[in-house]
Amino acid sequence: MQIYTNETISNIVVKLEGESKTRLALPDNEYDRRDRGRTELEVHKLLYKTAIVFPSRELQGAASPNANYTLPAGSHEYPFRFKIPFNNDCATVNSKLTNLNVAGLRLEMARDTNRHVKKTLPPSLSGFAGQAEIRYYVKVTVQRPAFYKENFRAEVGFNFLPIEPPRPPKNSRESYARRQHQFAPAIAPPSKQGLFRKPSNTPSAEEVVPPSIAFDGRLPDPAIITCNQPLPLRVLVTKLNESTATIFLRLIELVLVSSTTTRAHELQRNDTGTFVLMSRSNLDLALRCSDDRSQKGREMEIESTLWNQIPLPNHIAPTFDTCNLSRTYVLDIKVGLSWGTGGNMNPELMVQTIRMPVQVYSGIAPPQALLNAMANNPVTGTSNQLPQQAPQQPPPPFAPSDIADDVPPSYEDAIADELGPVDGPRREYEPPQHPRTSTESPEKRGWGERLFQDSGH
Fold first, then answer.
1. What is d(CA 233, CA 334) in angstroms, rounded to the nearest whole number?
2. What are the b/e assignments for 351-367, b being 16+ CB within 10 Å?
3. What is the pTM of this model?
4. Theoretical Cys-Cys bridge with 412: which of 20, 86, 279, 435, CB 3.0 to 4.6 Å?
5. What is d(CA 369, CA 259) in angstroms, rounded to the nearest whole number?
6. Neighbours of 430 (CB within 10 A)
7. HSE, side-chain direction, 13 A CA sphere, residue 266
């Protein structure tokens, strides 16, 4: 902290906060004209921790409760440390300041909601300007006792990638999706008359039985893919009839499709996004069985070297579900195949797509102490998943006892203070950014620039 004159302050408070904010407009065809342009705002405070970094505990004990302190001009540094919990801690009733939002020249006040989800903290999410955002930040407030002097404030946001749920034990099972196709018979070209033409020993395409095939996409069961890691995918082509034809791979494309559900009280919207992981065309690769026999049921595996060196982009968020936002994924596998004989392909091109629901994990494994505690816990240790909320029902009138019944204390919250920091690789995560808009409050647009340097303190 850099100050240029002596300042009288009462304390310096650091806050670690995370919030999920959604805003949806009312449809014009369902409401009268008086509501045209009106929006519903829903805000959930997922994380809230505070620490007083000045005065120190020793200084507080030696001074009166309402004591003020004068800091000399210069640089001042106060270390602090927060431990991010595993699960969110969404308050049942937000403060007025949390619900208040500035949209242009209009003040918005979000209504409290009784829909709260107790699950793993969601990742940072952006890219839905004005509609949805999950943000985490550290905010510093220097409180000045004089009523005519505003407090100094500074805020620094950061990208957060959560710890992943415990994975099930490894097994040999695979989840799969399958499509079948019957190729059409080849059309014989016009015969060429020639005196010195030699007969060919290779059967012509019209003499070969057109193949009937199935192609599968296979992932480990359950179908989990990991941020910043290649897909553990296998793509198989299987002949379903006796045919000596050769199958050719012409194109292949892998696309991860996201579905983001945004809720703002009674309103809901679904947005779909696509992430092209790999796309190759004009391949003309012959697929062969391990023993070149044309026996029915033989599997031919497409070379995984086409995609197993390509990690997921670092802007893909893990699968999550929180109070007013959720994200799910499916993997689209598009394959183009042809058939032929003697190295010659028929003009027919079969292009089909199979779709596989997948879960995207962050790649940050839970600490072993947490897994051990889960195994030893008689209540929650029977499941390999993080605590889940019961299926959603129409929201009843709010009562504190309802929250206690639906969301029992989780094992990770109970032992969080006893665990050390998560030790493992830190994944790169850069959610898509959008320009800052006028919907932000003035205190978030640089009040602290004159007070705090860019040194990260």
1. 13
2. eeebebebebbbbbbbb
3. 0.78
4. 86
5. 34
6. 12
7. 4
